[in-house]
Amino acid sequence: MAYVLNFVYLLLLLARSPRVISSLLRKGAHRDSWAARLFSRVPPRSSQGKCFWLHVVQVGDVHGLAPLLMGLEQQHPDAECVISTTTKSALDAARLKYAPRTVFYCPLDFTWSVRRALRRIRPDVLVLTEARWCPNLLQAADQYGARVALIDGGVPEGELGAYRWWSRWMRARFQQLDLIAVPTDRHEQRFLGYGVPAERILVSGSIKFDGVPTEPDTPRIRELAALAGIEAGDVVFLAGSTREPEERWALEAFRQLAAEFPQLRLIIAPQHPDRFEAVAQLLDKSGEDWQRSSRLSRPGPPATARLLLVDAVGDARAWWGTAHIALAGGSFSHRVGQNLIEPAAFGAAVCFGPHTRDASDVVERMLECEAAYRMRHPRELADFVRRCLVDPQFATDMGRRARQLVQQQQGAADRTCARLSRLLD
Questions:
Q1: Which of 16, 156, 177, 378 has the smallest set of CB atoms within 10 Å of its CB?
Q2: Which residues does 88 contact at the CB level (< 8 Å), separation at least 6?
Q3: Are residues 337 and 323 in the same domain?
Q4: In this predicted structure, what is the pLDDT of residue 71?
């Protein structure tokens, strides 16, 4: 069956080859990621001790991994933790955050790629953070004697149909897992339905809530606010982790309201650094007075413009702490995840668009306790910001409920860490 999957994967690559080639030509840096994943350019592990291989996908997952990683290293100081990612932005973030630990691209799910990676890493426990389609990796890990765990094991809502279609095949794959840590009882029932023994399932909550800062009054956040020229009485609308065309919609909402509400400030923080220049061109064409965060420094004058572009990598999470009103980006054009929890943890009034498949449980909880607002259309963005400006108590109450929700949900990393330790032992 593994070789049949290889053939199917090759057909899919050929079908996508024009798009892939176009992407490689436009974004030369992505050439390395494709080669690294296809040919499994994984650095060999030199130590002979125990090893946890932790795999994450997106940048938000990288930050959310920290409490679990620290817990494993505290409980097993002689074990090594290595980290794999899927995207270049996640790889860069992981290398920055977790150096000097080994960080690498997770191989594509071809037999030769996953087997080579397992030979080089020699993991005792492989920890996956999403129920993604990787049957060859699961099969190879089983053959090499590694225990396999799925944490935050929520099946994305958008993939439920595919999982039902391949239910017989997926049952076999899920039953190979030694541990499945799920966010809610509803997810537990889903995996029980796939035939996973109950003793292998842990209702842990979501580790996405753990390690998220909830205190907006920190030295770094105060420093950023001072650099941005944010004063008492200003109301900061931050559009963070944005993708095209969300920056344009945030800009349009700001322009509709700026004259009526002189206290309104707009901060735009794109998801990917390779879009900084495109957003800068958008702001230039708008005719608005704006500045770049990368050109602000201490000592030096603070920003004077009401519109700021965050074009420096590394401070995305701290910028959320300056926000009173937040747009969780990716929710109109693609998907939303960790960037929904972070502004909520700081007590901002959070809004997001309709595409939230990767954070469906987080979204459900926030909507249940009126801790966020879901928009169906971009034109609702200006209406939401206006309501927060006209009725500050509405925004304050929403932010308070969001912050309380995040604090109440924390603790999943400790529960998950304890069960992962049992796998290693």
A1: 16
A2: 29, 30, 33
A3: yes
A4: 95
Helix, strand, or coil (residue 177)? coil
Residues 199 and 277 in one domain: no
Clarify whether residues 375 and 403 are in a common domain.
yes
Task: Detail the DSSP E strand segments found in 118-178.
Answer: 125-128, 147-150
End-to-end CA, the chain: 32
Shared domain check, 269 and 192: no
**Neighbour-count burial of 6, counting CB atoms closer than 10 A to its CB (0-12 exposed, 13-18 middle, 19+ buried):** middle
Q: How many domains does the chain have?
A: 2
Tokens of 329: 């980006």
Answer whether residue 30 is part of any domain.
Answer: no
What average pLDDT does the structure give for the chain?
Answer: 87
261 occurs within a structural domain = yes
- Count of CB atoms within 10 A of residue 128's CB? 25
- What gap in Å lies between CA 61 and CA 209, rounded to an integer? 11
**pTM for the complete prediction?**
0.80
Distance CA 9, CA 16 (A): 11
Q: Are residues 283 and 293 part of one domain? A: yes
Query: How do residues 198-221 score in pLDDT, each as one tens digit?
Result: 999 999 988 888 988 899 889 999
C-alpha span between 323 and 223 (Å, rounded): 14
304, with CB counted inside 10 A (0-12, 13-18, 19+), is exposed
Which residues span the domain enclosing 98? 47-211+411-424
Alpha helices, DSSP H only, in 265-379? 276-286, 316-320, 338-345, 360-368
Q: Which two tokens stand for residue 84?
A: 């794999």
C-alpha distances out from residue 181 to 89, 128, 191, 201, 278, Å: 26, 10, 10, 6, 40
Residues 191 and 230 in one domain: no
Chain CA centroid to CA 298, Å = 30
For residue 9, is it within any domain? no
What is the token pair recorded at 362?
């987080």
| CATH code of 259's domain | 3.40.50.2000
